[in-house]
Automatic annotation (TrEMBL):
Residues 151-254 form the DUF306 domain. Signal peptide: none annotated. It holds the Pfam family META. PANTHER family: DUF306 DOMAIN-CONTAINING PROTEIN, HEAT SHOCK PROTEIN HSLJ. This is DUF306 domain-containing protein. It comes from the Bacteria.
Length: 258
């Protein structure tokens, strides 16, 4: 009898442990999938009357709405057509059942219900292939800054050369990026610096850079560092390193710090 009780207790413990591990694995999987989705979707837009949402990702463009017959439509991502005289991108996409023309214009846009201001106005013309009428709707959107940028980064290389504290004053330059607010702050090597980020998919710019006005030694490389930030147009993240570049090549390398 004692043996049976021990066996049952062990079995219950094993099942409990298995269920616990399964829950942990499921939670981990959901978290990983969410991070992957967040990193894949780089532009989101919404509109009202009727409500609709648009997500543009690296592989898919997904449109969901309360419009009858257009509740959920997925398209393969296409390269946008850029206007020559304005910051306007147009996507022309289609699948077996539907087609759409999506225009994204860089102009302030206010949500008609919430009043929230977004940096882009979005216009859609969407239709089912069996319909003769096109649904025309408008809304507001914004690019989703890569969440991996949100961290503190300390300078490691500048214009192809490793940097040392002696190149600056007291400590190495660093930047702290706040991806959600598209802002950054930090230390330039002599002065405190801050500014804003402009992000569009893989395009990254450091804008409106300001600094304190402390006089710096002649051998301090702060000016060169700030200039590289101003000249940045692209980035990559690998092995806890943030590399900033432009069409001429690599500009700086930062190391992630906790």
């Amino acid at each position: 009898m004692l043996l049976i009780i021990v066996t049952l207790a062990y079995s219950c413990k094993s099942i409990s442990a298995t269920n616990s591990n399964t829950k942990k694995n499921n939670s981990k999987s959901i978290s990983e999938n969410k991070s992957e989705e967040d990193n894949t979707t780089y532009f989101k837009a919404t509109g009202n009357e009727p409500f609709w949402e648009l997500k543009i990702g690296k592989e898919q463009i997904i449109f969901t709405s309360l419009i009858k017959g257009k509740e959920s439509i997925a398209f393969a991502t296409a390269k946008p057509i850029r206007a020559m005289d304005a910051n306007v991108k147009t996507y022309k996409v289609k699948n077996e059942k539907s087609s759409a023309v999506i225009s994204i214009q860089q102009i302030e846009c206010q949500n008609s219900m919430s009043g929230i201001i977004s940096p882009y106005k979005v216009s859609l013309e969407i239709k089912n292939n069996t319909d003769s009428n096109t649904q025309k709707i408008e809304g507001c959107g914004k690019y989703i800054t890569d969440y991996r940028l949100h961290d503190i980064w300390v300078l490691e290389e500048l214009n192809g050369f490793k940097v040392f504290i002696t190149d600056f004053q007291k400590e190495l330059p660093r930047i702290e990026i706040h991806a959600e607010e598209n802002k950054f702050m930090g230390f330039g090597g002599c002065n405190s610096i801050s500014g804003s980020l402009f992000f569009e998919n893989d395009l990254l710019r450091f804008n409106n850079i300001t600094s304190t006005l402390m006089a710096c030694p002649e051998n301090n490389k702060e000016d060169k560092f700030v200039k590289t930030l101003q000249n940045t147009t692209s980035y990559s993240i690998k092995n806890n390193r943030l590399t900033l570049s432009n069409p001429s090549g690599k500009l700086v390398v930062f190391k992630k710090v906790d």
